[in-house]
Amino acid sequence: MLKSFVRAVDAFNLFVGRITSYAMIPLFLVVCYEVFMRKLFNMPTVWAFEVTIYLYGFNYMMAMAATHSLDRHVRIDVITLQLPPKAQLVLRLITHWLVFVPFVGALLWAGTEYAAKSWANWEHSWSAWKPPLYPYKTVIPVSLLLLFIQGFANFVKEWYQLKGEKP
Euclidean distance between the first and final Cα of the chain, in Å? Predict the structure, then answer.
């Protein structure tokens, strides 16, 4: 049962990561449009800067769980690489509960409150363009929830590896 859960979480987060990667296309187009308008016609847009921030932030946040699924996050493991593989797994299992769960859990809690306040106030940007911020701020708790669930799936995978089983 846990193995099927791990496979489902991995598949879902990799799917979300693939879909999310397509946000780079409109990001590229908006940046090109803004450069073109600013440099050739001396007519900068009001909206392009914020759109690039929103698209890049969406891409960054929503790709966290897929990145964690593939074990591609940056980590400093100069010392742990000197340890045997089993000791590395034990350390990862311990730090999951001591670091990952409290940190991502606290961010998820705070991000949910942050998004809820934005929705309650129908918050808009301070710029002249004034796009709504509440949909964008909703990405924060959604992406952190996916990361939290992926963290649990990774914990289960590493637990199986420690037992000598394939997840």
Answer: 11
- Cα 82 to the center of its chain, rounded Å: 29
Of 142, 114, 129, 156, nearest in space to 50 by CA: 129
Instruction: Report which of 58, 141, 136 is spatially closest to residue 104, judged by C-alpha positions.
Output: 141
Q: What is the pLDDT of residues 21-55, one digit of tens each?
A: 999 999 999 999 999 999 999 999 999 999 999 99
pTM > 0.85: yes or no: yes
132 phi and psi, to 5 degrees? -70, 140
Q: Answer yes or no: are the C-beta atoms of 110 and 145 closer than 8 Å.
A: no
- The domain locations on the chain are 2-162
In angstroms, the CA 114 to CA 166 distance is 39
pLDDT digits (tens, 9 = 90+) for 78-100: 888 899 999 999 999 999 999 99
Cα–Cα distance for residue pair 111/113, rounded to 1 Å: 5
